[in-house]
UniProtKB/TrEMBL annotation:
Protein name: UPF0301 protein DD559_17625
Alphabetized InterPro entries for the sequence: AlgH-like
Pfam family, one: DUF179
One GO location term (cellular component): cytosol
PANTHER family: UNCHARACTERIZED PROTEIN YQGE (PTHR30327), UPF0301 PROTEIN YQGE (PTHR30327:SF1)
Family per similarity comment: Belongs to the UPF0301 (AlgH) family.
Length: 186
């Protein structure tokens, strides 16, 4: 039985020198974490040249008055699969509550609702996700890779995407400018 605490509803922040360029300065909103593995959605980078209206057009959804928001790089797993992190004021057929902090939806109904102005009041769209198998994330947390911090929805909705990494550390009382990707020897 794994007794480590669940990271569901927290943020993972990539440490400098994580060793995987896909995760440099990554901010991952953890949506599920249990003994079988973990799943998170990246919120610290956007996909260049792809915006919400482009996605809606691919599904023949009229964007209406919805802002043409950037689409986030959710992670390297299933990069064509879409997810929406959103406020709890809307729920669809597959919506999952994430520790009472935000909701996760992954079907087209949430995009239709957003475009029609009847969706969640706060939302963020991503393609792909970050996933870990059984015990994999716990092992990465014991090495120089990830820092976890309690979730603050202001980081999701009110912080510029490229400032989320530094702000995540700042909220934990750490000045990210002082972090280094290497360590010394004694």
């Amino acid at each position: 039985m794994d007794s480590s605490p669940s990271l569901t509803g927290q943020f993972l922040l990539a440490m400098p020198g994580i060793g995987d360029p896909r995760f440099e300065r990554a901010v991952i909103a953890m949506c599920a974490h249990d003994g079988e593995g973990a799943l998170g959605i990246g919120i610290g980078a956007t996909i260049e040249g792809l915006r919400l209206h482009d996605l809606l057009e691919q599904f023949d959804i009229d964007p209406g008055d919805v802002p043409d928001a950037p689409v986030h790089f959710g992670g390297p797993v299933e990069p064509r699969r879409g997810f929406v992190l959103h406020s709890a004021d809307w729920s669809g057929q597959d919506t999952i509550d994430v520790a009472g902090r935000w909701q996760l939806s992954g079907t087209i109904d949430v995009l239709r609702a957003i475009a029609e102005g009847r969706g969640p009041s706060r939302w963020l769209v991503a393609l792909g996700y970050a996933g870990w198998g059984e015990g994999q994330l716990e092992a990465e947390l014991t090495r120089h890779g990830w820092f976890n911090t309690p979730a603050n929805t202001a980081l999701l909705y009110d912080t510029d995407v490229y400032e989320r990494w530094a702000e995540g550390f700042n909220a934990a009382g750490i000045d990210a400018r002082l972090l280094t990707g290497s360590s010394g020897t004694a």
